[in-house]
Amino acid sequence: MKWLVSLVGAGLVMITLRDLFHTLWHPTRHGGLSRLVMTALWRLARRFRARRRVVGLVGPLAMVTVVSMWAVTVILGWAIVYWPHMPGAFTFSPGSEAAKEPALLDSVYLSLVTVATLGLGDIAPAESWLRLVSPLEALVGFALLTATVSWVLEIYPALTRRRVLAIRLALLRDSGPTTQQIDCTAGALLLDSLATEVVRVRIDFTQYAEAYYFHDGEDHSSLAVMVGYADALARRGQAARRPEVRLAGDLLAGALKDFAAILDQRFLHTGGTPTEVFAAYADDHGRSRAQP
């Protein structure tokens, strides 16, 4: 029975590590529990009246919630591993009152101290298998800390790329380029560079799906608003006279179509055209699309 309880704890730890791996390191970045938490917080926040303020906190709050969930489940999992063997399989420092405490409390305390790599030493494993297993928890704790830092360092550059594209589109919209300015070599280069940036953002949404749950703030920095203008530029490019401009327009239209497919497949599930997907994207972020 003791070993069965320990196996349950080990299973809980493995589930957490799997979720962490799929959220941060798997090529498709399909997190399980973490994705459910973020989706639930996003949908809950959108129900509040103070929509923009509340939704703006969802991304950072969701990341904190997910990391806290990982930490709690790892601590509880290892505590369940220790619990059936406490206190007989452990040694206690002289004068320690820990042995007089409930076994479950001591197990949680030991797990918390170990995962935080504090190494207080007042409770130490005595049996050989525990002396081998216990340091693994410290390694898991170190991996969790490293993963959290790397997650933060990865997600914010992705958000920056998305907002840079949105602001660039806003500046183009405000400048109001004419048909002649688009139907030239410079216009072809412009459309081609926009297609490249759209592809980068599309990859960001694939690798960092949690970026979707970050609100961009003002309209001119919101890709959910400005992506409609990119669609209009692509159509103008496709209707141009110069072949290089038409080619660049086709590239931008293809990049936008692929981007819409990712948005719909992973987040929106409308099953509609790219135009309908972009409208749903703007609505989901509490905005209206920019008009061409």
TrEMBL record:
Residues 80-153 form the Potassium channel domain. The chain crosses the membrane at residues 57-83, 138-159. It comes from the Bacteria. Keywords: Membrane, Transmembrane, Transmembrane helix. Signal peptide: none annotated. This is Ion transport 2 domain protein.
